[in-house]
Amino acid sequence: MLKEAKEYVRDTNRLFESGYLRKVAKGENTRVLSITSGKGGVGKTNIATNLACALVEIGKKVLVFDADLGLANIDIILGITPEYTIEHVIKGKKRLSDIIVKTEEGIHILPSSSGIEELTNLSLFQKKRLIEEFSLLNDTYDFIIIDTPAGISSNVIYFNLAANEIINIVEPDPTSFTDAYALMKVLSIKYGIKEFNIVLNCVDSEGQARSLFQKLSMICERFLEVKLNYLGYVFKDKKLVDAVRKQRPVILLYPYSKSSRCIYNLRDRLCSIEPAKGAGFKRFLNRLFGKGGRIPNEEI
Questions:
Q1: 111 close to 82: Cβ distance less than 8 angstroms
Q2: What is the distance between the alpha carbons of residues 233 and 231, in angstroms, rounded to a whole number?
């Protein structure tokens, strides 16, 4: 495994030093967000999907990158069945444009569950092919939302490092709180990430959300020396549960529900934040495939 990892670094450095990535990765206007969590079952995919729909409603072009290995929850929430995944692109059987699913809600889905593990172990030829395919998306989208797996596995770390902005979803229960801290600890101590956006999900009140955020923020500032940004919260809502059962985004099925109002607030807050300089699609490609793409230690 150590030999394979060294070969991966050598090959990506070769691509970077040849100037290849700089030639094809030109987009600077796309915001790349990872929506992640330390614990599964906290509503991460639901928030990712509804946030994407809310962004589309104000004219934004959005691609949701389904990086949640093996679970394909986005398919369930939207009631779609993708015929192809990124695995077909890696093997040269399909173009990236062939596998992107355009939903009736107006968002685009990049299904990739069955091919995610291969992304951290590609040959030089496969990486070059994927870079060429991804480069065709330059400035196509205003937002790329990566729905990562939950936990602290190498795939979770990999996609959080590729994103320009990280949104960590936290629920009130103690295990979610602890696991959210564990994820940020790994990303900050091992990989130098010093800023995270926090969304509190399934809360009973705004007061509860702010109290939980303050507690988490104080702990992180004291022990990790990282900055947490309060992005907002989503209320516990039976309408949201019903929307999942009906395989429809809650903001479309119940636009005036309390959870939908929270999603719209998240969208507005997100759009009001000025993205960091040097971010964008170019940085995303460099981190995903190039010299900026650091391999998690777990893989080595």
A1: yes
A2: 7
> What stretches of 123-181 adopt beta strand conformation (E)?
143-150, 165-170
The residue extents of the domains of the chain are: 2-293
| 3 state DSSP class of 24 | helix
Token representation of residue 127: 């990486």
> Which residue's structure tokens are 């939950």?
150
- How far is it, in rounded angstroms, from Cα 149 to Cα 159? 9
C-alpha dihedral, 146 to 151 to 153 to 155, nearest 10°: -10
Residue 22 DSSP SS3: helix
Residues 241-294 pLDDT 10s: 999 999 999 999 999 999 999 999 999 999 999 887 766 777 787 777 765 544
What is d(CA 187, CA 211) in angstroms, rounded to the nearest whole number?
24
Q: Which pTM value belongs to this model?
A: 0.86
Amino acid identity at 180 = A
Cα–Cα distance list, 293 to 15, 191, 268, 288 (Å):
12, 11, 30, 5
State whether residue 171 is helix, strand or coil. Answer: coil
Pick the range with the lowest mean pLDDT from 45-54, 148-157, 164-173: 148-157
Answer for the pair 9, 127: CB distance below 8 angstroms, yes or no. no
Question: How far, in Å, CA of 157 to CA of 173, rounded?
Answer: 23
Classify domain 2-293 at the CATH superfamily level: P-loop containing nucleotide triphosphate hydrolases (3.40.50.300)
Amino acid at 297: N
Phi, psi of 183 (to 5 degrees): -65, -45
- Which CA distances in Å does 112 have to 25, 78, 92, 189? 21, 16, 14, 29
Q: How far is CA 151 from the centre of its chain?
A: 13
pLDDT at 298 (0 to 100): 41
Measured at the CA of 35, the angle between CA 176 and CA 222, to 5 degrees, comes to 55
